[in-house]
TrEMBL record:
An example Gene Ontology molecular-function term: branched-chain amino acid transmembrane transporter activity
Domain of life of the native organism: Bacteria
Keywords: Amino-acid transport, ATP-binding, Nucleotide-binding, Transport
Protein name as catalogued: ABC transporter ATP-binding protein
Span of domain ABC transporter: 2-233
Length: 233
């Protein structure tokens, strides 16, 4: 349903991604895994039209996204949760969720505020608080919940576990598993193999802007050479 073929991406003159291809099928959780600076965020931003892509193809549900502006890509049903967890700090949690609302989409799960409060009970308790007063982990949850309010057909999650305490990471794992239960596909970017292995079906390993491995999560876990070469710190 989301297919990227041989894209090349740049920041100014700097050639960051070369020949990156990957795909995401309905109901799948796929991880793009690699070290700091490997090109994970650039791949996700390329899909969202936020980075200059000079060649290749990015298709979603049969439509070509290459060259489209970010707002059009978002409206086509790709939900993007950036690394920086942007919330509207002065709005309450409930208002943040309302701000993410988009019409329902054929073939995509439909979310209401109450569904999201069921999925994120700690946000429900704090629904009338200003989002700026939440912890980093709660802001990450709110960003995911607000993205779901857009009734996306797939989600791009950029390093959701980064900088969060293990207990919060566990909550995020549970949420990802529940989203998976709704058959909503997720492309996850991650450095942490342990976190990735708990939620993902398949993996792509990226290093200096090139895909170095693709396979099932089990194949990656069994391939010590790839792990050693591209993932060990
Ligand atoms: N705005 C930018 N301008 C120029 N170069 C950039 C910019 N953003 C990232 N880069 C470079 O692009 C390369 C890939 O960065 P990217 O952010 O995609 O890495 P990443 O795999 O997501 O890692 P991280 O965990 O650090 O976010 C790095 O060499 C980085 O220095």
């Amino acid at each position: 349903m989301l297919t990227i073929e041989k894209i090349h991406s740049y920041y100014g003159q700097a050639h960051i991604l070369s020949d990156v291809s990957l795909s995401l099928s309905p109901g799948e959780i796929v991880v793009l895994i690699g070290r700091n600076g490997a090109g994970k965020s650039t791949t996700i931003k390329s899909i969202m039209g936020m980075v200059k892509v000079t060649q290749g193809s990015i298709r979603f549900g049969g439509d070509e996204l290459f060259g489209e502006p970010p707002y059009r890509i978002a409206r086509r049903g790709i939900g993007y949760v950036p690394e920086e967890r942007r919330v509207f700090a002065r709005l309450t949690i409930q208002e943040n969720l309302e701000a993410g609302r988009q019409p329902p989409r054929d073939g995509a799960p439909r979310w209401q505020v109450d569904d999201l409060f069921d999925l994120f009970p700690n946000l429900a308790e704090a629904r009338h608080r200003a989002a700026g007063t939440l912890s980093g982990g709660e802001q990450q949850m709110l960003t995911i919940a607000r993205t779901l309010m857009g009734n996306p057909g797939c989600i791009l999650l950029d390093e959701p576990s980064e900088g969060l305490a293990p207990v919060v990471v566990e909550q995020i794992i549970k949420v990802i598993q529940q989203i998976k239960g709704q058959s909503l596909p997720i492309l996850l970017s991650e450095q942490n193999l342990y976190f990735a292995s708990l939620v993902s079906d398949r993996a792509y390993v990226i290093e200096t802007g090139r895909i170095r491995f693709s396979g099932t999560m089990r194949e990656l876990e069994e391939n010590a050479e790839i792990r050693q070469q591209y993932l060990a710190v």
